[in-house]
Amino acid sequence: MTDYSTLIQPDSGQAATEIEIVSKEGFADWFAAQPGPVRAAATAQKFDGNAGDFAILHIPGSEDWKAALVVADATKLEHWSLSKASEALPEGTYRLAGAETGDALLGWLLGQYRFDEYRSEPKLKGARVLVTSEPGRIENAVHQAEATDLVRTLVNRPAGDLGPDQLEAEAQRLAKTHKGKLHVTKGHDLETGYPLIHAVGKAASRDYAPRLIELEWGDERHPRIAIVGKGVVFDSGGLSMKSAVGMRLMKKDMGGAAHALALAELIMKAHLPVRLHLLVAAVENCVSGGALRPGDIVKSRAGIHVEIDNTDAEGRLILADTLAKAVEDKAGLIVNFATLTGAARVALGPDLPALFANDDELADGLLDAGKAVADPLWRMPLWKPYADMLDSDIADTANAGGGFAGAITAALFMQKFVPDDVHWAHLDTFAWRPTAKPGRPKGGEALGLRAVYRYLSQAYPVR
């Protein structure tokens, strides 16, 4: 992981190259006021006044240079305003001229994220350091950059190098670092205690054996919250096998687990006054002679008999047993992350996690938090009339709907395992960015992480 703590420093008057921030609306006046050589250099670099335009310019009368960056509003930088500069500038130390860094600190940090584990030569060499007159913002920005880095890196790793063992090791790291208690259920105990998790993962090799990973942290007197993650380290679809194209990105099907692990660490670093229960169901959904079959019926931990219509609707199965455990342990709030349905992506595209919640106040709080930190969510309905799409002729429920409203029926299936008096939010997130944007490279991505953390930090403030 990049050492983000070195990329932002308090401004103590140290030597630094200036970054001049130019508002889009004021660009024409700024350009007209520049000396001829500066205008010529700006024009040659196509520095035309569009938000995001960036140029390196000579300072007349000296041997020094400065950078110039166009933003939508120089009086209030947005989260990603500085990302292009942090990606493109030479190695060195920089200072904004006449502007406060504000929320843009995070974008400065994440503009320097690279996934180079499998490259002989790293793409980015050297660091771009920003000095800021707002030192109080540094710690939060660094923590959120580290959490985002964790999600991106775990999702980017190929499944051959990231199995259930590695997710368990990551939870062990968190427990050791933050003095939490780790408990892992696998083998016979998983088969008897969490039959849906076992059923999905039983076809995997011994090295990829399924398990439920739990971490407990915090004062038992504080409100109990559960953070749940879907950890399907690779999803072939099982016997309801995906196509080659559909399988290509299925290393990212553990993106929910990555979000849950990263959020748990944010909570612990901030010492939020909660009793945290992290639960990650870690499996590989693959094919063997012992694989779960369409038509099989499995009795869940909660006692609900589930008929398997589609083995590629496996995420909701492992989450069902995991949610049941969170409920048993008296969580007052449960938030789960899952790369659950293609239907959510068809409806909302890659950038917007679908939010389902059984409580309007909870949903509104999460939506507002997402807007505040440029990590948007979009609420989808738990539309009860669609529940009959999950009817089974011979069991309590089927695991997949009839082809319509796939994101909704998946959420309705999971809701069967959460009582109405337990506040519950389900984020169906993509965990992937198909095209790059400043500060947000193509590949694994944290989508919904910062929104939920913002909500929790406001709901459970540190006194």
Q: Tell me the name of the CATH homologous superfamily of the largest domain.
A: Zn peptidases
- The CATH architecture category of the largest domain equals 3-Layer(aba) Sandwich
For the biggest sheet, the summary is: 8 strands, mixed
**CATH topology-level name of the largest domain:** Aminopeptidase
Radius of gyration (Å): 24 Å
Morphology call: elongated
**Major beta sheet, strand line-up:** 7-8-10-9-13-17-14-15
Strand share of the residues? 15-25%
Q: CATH class of the largest domain, please?
A: Alpha Beta
Helix/strand structural class? alpha/beta
The count of helical stretches stands at 15
Low-confidence stretches: none
Give the tally of structural domains.
Answer: 2
Helix content: 25-40%
Oligomeric status of the shown chains? single chain
Mean pLDDT: 96
Tell me the number of strands.
19
Distance between the termini: 31 Å
Pfam families: Peptidase_M17, Peptidase_M17_N_1
Organism: Sphingorhabdus pulchriflava
Keywords: Aminopeptidase, Hydrolase, Manganese, Protease
Family: Belongs to the peptidase M17 family.
Task: Offer a few descriptive terms.
Aminopeptidase; Leucine Aminopeptidase, subunit E, domain 1; 6-stranded mixed sheet; 463 residues; 2 domains; 15 helices; alpha/beta
Explain what this protein looks like in three dimensions.
The chain has helices at residues 27-33, 36-44, 83-88, 104-110, 138-156, 164-178, 188-193, 195-201, 244-247, 255-270, 315-328, 342-348, 360-372, 406-415, 449-459; strands spanning 8-10, 17-23, 54-58, 65-71, 92-97, 128-132, 181-186, 211-217, 224-235, 275-285, 297-299, 305-307, 333-338, 354-357, 378-379, 397-398, 423-428, 432-433, 443-444. A hairpin with a 6-residue loop joins β3 and β4. α6 packs parallel to α10 (255-270) and α8 packs antiparallel against α11 (315-328). The chain is built from 15 helices and 19 strands. It has 2 domains: 4-133, Leucine Aminopeptidase, subunit E, domain 1 (3-Layer(aba) Sandwich); 144-459, 3-Layer(aba) Sandwich (Aminopeptidase), CATH 3.40.630.10. Strands 7-8-10-9-13-17-14-15 form an 8-stranded mixed sheet, with helices on both faces. Strands 1-6-5-2-4-3 form a 6-stranded mixed sheet, with helices on both faces. Strands 11-12-16 form a 3-stranded mixed sheet, covered by helices on one side. By secondary structure, the protein is α/β, with parallel strands linked by helices.
